[in-house]
Amino acid sequence: MCSHGTGTRLGQCVSEDYCEYDADCSGMTACVANACVPAQCTQGKQAICAPYVCQSHACLSSCSAASECDSQHTCQDEKCVLR
């Protein structure tokens, strides 16, 4: 039996944030060395932050102005929503 904070994958105990692909992670995280970590972004890779934008190599998770949302979204109640 695996300890608290772990799960099983292919019969082996692994940490809860274990991943093999970015799709295994949720929210603004990416799979790096089999662990979900906060996604680092660049101006050239804005899409990973959608609907928010990349600022200082980190995806924003809330907004105070439309400029903090991608071109298809606007800021409303601190969230990026479709225009």
How would you describe the overall organization of this protein?
This protein has 83 residues and is mostly beta strands. It is 0% helix and 34% strand. It contains no helices and 8 strands. The protein has strands spanning 6-9, 12-15, 29-32, 35-38, 54-55, 58-59, 73-76, 79-82. It has a two-stranded antiparallel ribbon. Strands 3-4 form a two-stranded antiparallel ribbon. Strand 5 and strand 6 form a beta hairpin. The radius of gyration is 16 Å and the shape is elongated. The mean pLDDT is 82.
Q: Descriptors for this entry?
A:
mainly beta; two-stranded antiparallel sheet; elongated
Topology, element by element:
Blueprint: E1 6-9, E2 12-15, E3 29-32, E4 35-38, E5 54-55, E6 58-59, E7 73-76, E8 79-82
The helix/strand class is mainly beta
Average pLDDT taken over every residue = 82
Helical element count? 0
Q: What is the string of SSEs from the N terminus onward?
A: EEEEEEEE
Show unreliable segments: none
Give the C-alpha Rg.
Answer: 16 Å
Q: Summarize the biggest pleated sheet.
A: 2 strands, antiparallel
Distance separating the two termini: 49 Å
The amount of helix comes to under 10%
Task: State the total count of DSSP E strands.
Answer: 8
The spatial strand order of the largest sheet comes to: 1-2
What is the general shape? elongated
Percent of sequence in beta strands: 25-35%
